[in-house]
Amino acid sequence: MKVLVTDGIAPEAVKMLEEAGHEVVLDEASPEGLLEMIGDYEALIVRSRTKVRTDSIDRASNLKVIGRAGIGTDNIDSAYAGEKGIKVVNAPMGSTLSVAELAFGHMLSLARGIHRGTAGARSGQWLKKQLKGMELDGKTAGIVGCGRIGQALARRCQAFGMTTIGFDPYLPKEVAQEFGIELMEMDELLKRSDFISLHVALTDSTRHMLSTEQFEIMKDTAYLVNCARGGVVDENALYNALSEGKIGGAALDVFETEPPGEVKLAELDNVTFTPHIGANTTDAQRKAGTMVAEQVLIALGGEDPVHWVNRPKQ
Ligand code: NAD
Questions:
Q1: Kind and range of the H or E element at 111?
Q2: 96-273: what CATH class?
Q3: Residue 199 annotated to the active site
Q4: How many Å lie between the centroid of ligand 1 and the Cα of residue 146?
Q5: 73: which residues sit within 8 A by CB, 6+ positions away?
Q6: Which residue in 67, 194, 262, 287 has a CA-CA distance of 20 to 30 Å to 311?
């Protein structure tokens, strides 16, 4: 069968598809190009660039499966594809460790001011006296959203001698216990944590879940890490909390608008940034590619994939 890959995919994934006897075409199709080509293919694999909307799905007369090499499928009209009998599959675990490691890296950087030392060196300043840091050992990490990434982060924090506490109203207690996370209410977590790391999706219930009221509750030495989604943190409230010394510092991988352009937060030296690179590692991309290829192969074989996003409700 023919597989169209429009946003690039790891070579290992292409090899898997070819070894299974399929023809793989790599083409960075434009929206118009996709409309023209899609009718010839049985499978389509995308990342986030390609939008698969109703117009393409209407032309996809042979398509059996759409694979997303990653987690989020908001660029695919999955319900509509489902109505047309097209399975949508993804690779939700591909980036888990990369995001957890980035969040942990931000924690270390905040604790020691690595970002400030670098900025100082670039401008000829030797900030030795100003950069009095702290050890992670013996501190408390509060994890908000204890799913795949939150659990992986907990393991890393524990390896560094930290106590791990969590807020996740949907996580069974036994799973939290298995990962050494003590579950509690959000306010309690805010009060007790030296570091707070966010690992929830952006939904109506998580939008601005960290805002003025929550910053008031946090320790004035606490550090906040957001490698989840912009919008979970109220950036204006964060600016005020950081500039008024209500919290110790923050690290952001994600922003309410991306790219954020000139960020007011960048005026402050107790905040550090990365440009939404949580999943941006060769390892995560190889894993996401091979995981989605596996799911696509299952779907092309007429079986039910494990990571079937638009599976009909029983
Ligand atoms: P997951 O689904 O395994 O875990 C999310 C957890 O959040 C679940 O355990 C769920 O019960 C919990 N949750 C839901 N609503 C909540 C609420 N209101 N309060 C507290 N907990 C709540 O997802 P994951 O794979 O761990 O990914 C987490 C998030 O990380 C994703 O949704 C995505 O937004 C983000 N992410 C970011 C990057 C990046 O590049 N920075 C990459 C991948 C994922």
A1: helix 96-112
A2: alpha beta
A3: no
A4: 7
A5: 88, 90, 309
A6: 287
Q: Please, what's the b/e burial string for 260-297 (b: 16 or more CB within 10 A of its CB; e: otherwise)?
A: beebebeeeebbbbbebebbebeebbbbbbbbbbbbbb
pTM of the shown model? 0.92
How many angstroms does the Cα of residue 301 sit away from the middle of ligand 1?
Answer: 31
Token couple for 4: 């169209």
Which of 47, 106, 156, 229 is catalytic? The answer is: 229
Atom of ligand 1 lying closest to residue 200 CA: 7
Pairwise pLDDT comparison (26 vs 313), residue with the higher score: 26
Tell me, using a 6 A CB cutoff, whether residue 171 lines ligand 1.
yes
- In this predicted structure, the answer to whether residue 264 has a pLDDT above a threshold of 80 is yes
Rounded distance between C-alpha atoms, residue 117 and residue 111, angstroms:
12
Is the beta carbon of 167 within 6 A of some atom in ligand 1? yes
Instruction: Tell me which of 59, 207, 276, 311 is the catalytic residue.
Output: 276
Q: How is the chain split among helix, strand and coil, in percent rounded to 5?
A: 40, 15, 45
First-to-final CA distance of the chain = 29
Distance, in Å, from the CA atom of 46 to the CA atom of 147, rounded to the nearest integer, reads 24
Instruction: Report which protein residue has its CA nearest ligand 1's atom 5.
Output: 147
DSSP 75-101: TB-HHHHHHTT-EEEE-TTTTHHHHHH
Query: How would CATH label the architecture of 2-94+282-300?
Result: 3-Layer(aba) Sandwich (3.40)
Does the annotation count 213 as an active-site position? no
Query: Taking 80 as the threshold, does the pLDDT of residue 314 lie above it?
Result: no
- Name the residue ranges covered by the structural domains of the chain: 2-94+282-300, 96-273
- For residues 232 and 198, the answer to whether their CB atoms sit within 8 Å is yes
Ligand 1 centroid to residue 296 C-alpha, Å? 24
Rounded to the nearest angstrom, the distance between the alpha carbon of 105 and the centre of ligand 1 is 18
Q: What is the pLDDT of residues 233-243, one digit of tens each?
A: 999 999 999 99
289 lines ligand 1 (CB under 6 A): no
